Amino acid sequence: MASLDDLKKRIASVKSTQKITKAMKMVAAAKLRRAQESAEKGRPYSEKMNNIILNLSSGISDKENAPKLLSGSGNDKVQLCVVMTSDRGLCGGFNSNIIKKAKSYFTKIIEEGKDLKIITVGSKGNDQLKRVYGDKIIANISFKESKHANYFDAEKVGKMVIEKFEAEEFDVCTIFYNQFKNVITQIPQAQQIIPLNVENSEEDKSEDSYEFEPDEDEILSNLLPKNISTQIFKAMLENSASEQGSRMSAMDNATRNAGEMVDKLTIEYNRSRQAAITKELIEIISGAESL
Amino acid sequence: MSEEFKIEIVNPEKSFLVKDDVSEVVVPAFEGEMGILKDHISIISFLKPGIVKILSKSGDENYYIEDGIVEFKNNNLSILTSSIFNLTDLDKSKKDDLLKLAEEEANNPEINDQSKYLVDQKIEVLRSLN
Questions:
Q1: pTM of this prediction exceeds 0.90
Q2: Which end of chain A is more exposed for a tag (fewer CB within 10 A), N or C?
Q3: Residue ranges per domain, chain B?
């Protein structure tokens, strides 16, 4: 059995850990509110963008000459996956959930005999993926310096993806991120951004005719690259809200566990203290008796 | 019959401006400036760098815009843009910063014709503001 002194030290250390996790939880809660707010504020932009593209692509006359970003390059041999994770740890299953989702997709691709290329956004994903898929990672981007997700960063990723697409380095692009549902639940998502999936959006196709200036094709080819950045930005916003939410619940759990541990250790400490006293008393009494 | 319609300007981070008492908006569309009044036909166009003028009951406002898409439908005007500044907030040093950025881009030898055209526009507009 541990000595009294050891127990005392142990209790002190668990208590100070509890203080840290409690503080982290509070910080995460504050950050979560901000991240959630900006995720909500960012929604109108991507929704409007989506609507316009939908309207445009339904009006496009010949599908043959449609921009490649919309129709794809014609095959699906090379798959690019953009895996978006956080730069910091201690956020529960946040990163591993994305990685798990991505990995199962990777195995599927490789089994089908297709080529795989990976871009990791955020250092945690890179750390976890480079052990197995190190040779597939073509780039790693990290935004450690930026305090919160901003459009400028998203545009950087978007430009890189488009450049690679135009250089015909890949055919299909999928992004992986966590969608924020609530503090406890974040759903890992795989979303294909190139070629764009227009069919699956169930909008009421209002058939009112727009006037375009200049023509549809030109607007579309200008809009699609922007849409890529917008989608990536949306993913970044969702991700940062998820990260904070996940960290908050993880830290909440840790604080609670630490509390339980302190209780248990305190009982043990008191018991052994009492045992020591009793032992001393017995010694004194038996000593006095023998006289 | 009121002659007013609604305008909404959104950038990726937030909804930048919402107004519903607008009588006229002038936007720098790709093929020239375009004034939009109530009951304009539905239109989608993209913008080149320039000034967006909003005329409304509660006062006129001017914004400097670098790019964007404009959509008008059912008397709702939406402008999607990634960089927009209120002219009254845009002071000298900020203007100079933007101008410097644009000039750097213009001097990039690998620039393609269309972006060159847009950058030149940007420089022109920024110079005229000073």
A1: no
A2: C
A3: 5-86, 92-129
Contact B45 A209 (CB under 8 A): no
Kindly state whether residue A214 falls inside one of the protein's structural domains. Answer: yes
A&B contacts, CB < 8 Å: 71
- The pLDDT assigned to B106 comes to 78
CATH for A175: 3.40.1380.10
The yes/no answer on whether domain B5-86 falls in CATH 2.60.15.10 is yes
**Looking at the domain assignment, is residue A270 inside a domain?**
no
Query: Strand, helix or coil at A212?
Result: strand
Residue A122 belongs to what domain range? 44-249
In a domain? residue A136: yes
Residues of A with CB under 8 A from a CB of B: 38, 41-42, 44-46, 48-49, 52, 55-56, 150-151, 154-155, 208-214, 219, 222-223, 226, 230, 233
Residues of A belonging to the active site = 91
Q: Classify residue A38: in a domain, yes or no.
A: no
Question: Do the Cβ atoms of B69 and A52 come within 8 Å?
Answer: yes
Q: What is the pLDDT of residues B21-45, one digit of tens each?
A: 889 999 988 888 889 888 888 888 8
- Number of domains, chain A: 1
Across the interface, do A222 and B46 touch by the CB < 8 Å criterion? yes
Residues A189-229 have pLDDT tens digits of 898 888 877 654 444 455 556 777 777 777 877 788 888 88
User: CA quadruple A117, A132, A190, A161: dihedral positive or negative?
Assistant: negative
Is the backbone peptide bond immediately before B49 cis, with ω within 30 degrees of 0?
Answer: no
Q: Which of B31, B46, B108 to mutate to test the interface with A (most CBs of A within 10 A)?
A: B46
**What ipTM was reported for this prediction?**
0.77
For the segment A39-66, the average pLDDT, to the nearest whole number, is 76
DSSP string, B18-31: EEEEEEEEEEEETT
Q: What secondary structure does DSSP assign to A169-181, as a single string? A: S-SEEEEEEEEE-
Residue A196 pLDDT: 79
Collapse the DSSP code of A121 into the 3-class scheme (helix H, G, I; strand E, B; otherwise coil) and give the result. strand
Buried b / exposed e along B85-95 (16+ C-beta atoms within 10 A): eeeeebeeeeb
Q: Which residue of A has its CA nearest to B29?
A: A213
Cβ of A233 within 8 Å of Cβ of B44? The answer is no
Handedness of CA B13, B27, A49, A85 (dihedral sign): negative
Residues of A in contact with B68 (CB under 8 A): none
